[in-house]
Design goal:
homodimer; alpha/beta; Isopropylmalate Dehydrogenase; ten-stranded mixed β-sheet; two-stranded antiparallel sheet; binds 3-isopropylmalic acid
Chain lengths: 353, 353
């Protein structure tokens, strides 16, 4: 309960590539919305600059120790995209910083809303955030030159807590339906367990209809104009949540438009669902980066710290600005307006609400 | 080389639910196209009726022994959808018949074309068909009440043969680009191996551009109107291929419109990518089932047995009939025309070509 805290500390982690540009913009809008409380010392923004690929490579850790210590002193974190080293990159193979942060801060739930009001689409994905293919993602084995294994994990506690969060959300927000998405016909033990445990939790919510889908057909139904409006709340193992939320975000205008909340018992982290777009920086187009995803993440942050009025304002303003952006092409990478100009536009729109 | 055979034996396996209805229709159209060769004894259609859920449950095998023996006497197989038992079903837990057939006949490649000519979309997916999450799908472990594991497998041979097939296809068909799709940033050992081996094979095809994508962002790019035309040939591990081809099929009009080829060194099996729709049968609407997926599978079968002229004819006729169906709503589940009427319509269209 954040209203009981003397002071809420918001850590701001810019990350890599376009991360600092768009995170700075989201922070600027948040500071504008929370100006009185910042002045009164009830909210503090704390810059955490060390989570860069250079620092991570220097210590060969997904999160340097001092950065982790700083993160743990915050209540909530606004985080820009970080670069994950991949085959062919100049960096050695260190783990993804977001995946590491989810594990280190036990952020077990990844909540990703996607809305297309004109189409009647209003989805909220509850992606399990620390298990599945991610728990032991670096622990696979090359048995010999021929044969390689990887592992997938499902735990009872991990599944029950994400299921409960999804159903509680559905109940609180008057949603009528929760869809469980797995591949339990093939990945029988872990996905089978996930499905069964979710179905058990479902029994505690008799007013909510539960259905279940396989991830393959779900990626089709999600874009089926006749069906897509019917989905409301979805709960999924980590990897399927990862996959389907990128597809879902595309329906809304692309991964650049989608924010996500990483929630745990003690900490919460809010981020864009897309990557750090290093090429934009290389080409000198960083200032044109689209801050919408981080601003959507900021909406979720505000709502999480019980600032629902501010969250609603920012959301309305974003809906308007993103609609205008599409309609008038006043900004965005294609048209030449900058990230900062978009931020200004959002703030001036808030003024008019 | 099928032209060297005295006789080509085409096994026809109706399967469950709407399977026999739509498979029968595809067989009828095939017999019509191949009438002379059937009469001359150069092609034989062999009905294999035993692959039903009832028989499979009776012997508790995904494929009854006698059915498997019959299958192995054929050169190619046309297979209707089969029912895979799932939690809550009246059937005990036996493995999926298609997955079992892929393993038993070593059908290592699942080739799934998706076309939307009006949008410039012409994709061919090369899904690895026997490994990944599927190899040990029933071998997961419940360590205790809390913890469950499943396994993913990549082998060198399995990866190299699917990669080579994809690149050979690209080369033969004048495709400029092959995209490798994995989640190698997380599923590091197996997907990392898959990615690396595909990249090695790529070096043997210097005229073809290779790129690689993570499956999450790929599900977004696939529906991005600015990007989707650019993709041509995709090669993926089993589970990602399973997931993304349902999404892709939806772009073309739904899983009911998509056929797939399961190819091995010795055998080849052609099927719909969708399920057996038992509910349609229960509701007495089986005769209205849409045979398009099986007719698309029949196109691939014809092409596979070196009957390219017939394959082209059937494909043209299908393109026309499916287009008309959409435009005039002359058939399909919603309008009251039957599966058989659609088959007749396809054959009368072939007459006009
Ligand atoms: C960058 C990557 C490791 C990450 C993930 O797979 O979770 C990303 O795709 C996401 O969805 O946040
Ligand atoms: C029915 C199911 C086991 C199967 C699969 O997962 O391969 C199906 O989805 C497919 O794509 O053929």
């Amino acid at each position: 309960d954040y209203s009981k805290l003397d002071k809420i500390i918001i850590g701001v982690c810019g990350g890599d590539g376009i991360g600092p540009v768009i995170t700075h913009e989201a922070e600027r809008v948040l500071r504008y919305l929370l100006a009185d409380e910042v002045k009164a010392g009830k909210i503090e923004f704390r810059e955490i600059d060390g989570l860069t690929i250079e620092n991570r490579v220097a210590c060969m850790k997904a999160i340097p120790d001092d950065v982790l210590a700083e993160l743990k002193e915050c209540h909530v974190i606004l985080k820009g995209p970080t670069t994950t080293p991949r085959a062919g990159d100049p960096w050695p193979n260190i783990e993804s910083a977001n995946v590491a942060m989810r594990k280190e801060l036990d952020l077990f739930a990844n909540v990703r809303p996607v809305k297309v009001p004109s189409e009647g689409i209003d989805w909220t994905f509850f992606r399990e955030n620390t298990e599945g293919a991610y728990t032991l993602g670096s622990c696979g084995t090359n048995v010999d030159d021929e044969l390689a294994f990887d592992f997938t994990v499902t735990t009872t506690e991990g599944t029950e807590r994400i299921a409960r969060l999804a159903y509680d959300y559905a109940k609180k927000n008057g949603k009528k339906r929760v869809s469980i998405v797995t591949k339990a016909n093939i990945v029988k033990t872990t996905d089978g367990k996930f499905l069964k445990l979710c179905q058990n939790i479902a029994k505690e919510y008799p007013d909510i209809t539960t259905d279940d889908w396989y991830i393959d057909i779900m990626t089709a139904k999600l874009i089926d104009p006749k069906r897509r409006k019917d989905f409301q709340v979805m709960v999924l193992p980590n990897l399927y949540g990862d996959i389907i939320t990128d597809e879902a975000a595309e329906m809304q205008g692309g991964v650049g438009t989608a924010g996500s909340a990483n929630l745990g018992k003690r900490y919460a982290m809010f981020e864009a669902i897309h990557g750090s777009a290093p090429r934009m920086m290389d080409e000198g187009r960083g200032c044109f980066a689209d801050p919408c995803s981080m601003l959507r993440a900021a909406v979720m942050l505000l709502s999480h710290i019980d600032h629902q009025t501010e969250a609603n304002k920012l959301e309305r303003a974003l809906d308007i600005c993103m609609y205008e952006e599409k309609k008038l092409a006043i900004t965005g990478r294609d048209t030449g307006a900058t990230c900062e100009e978009f931020g200004n536009y959002v703030m001036s729109t808030i003024e008019t609400l």
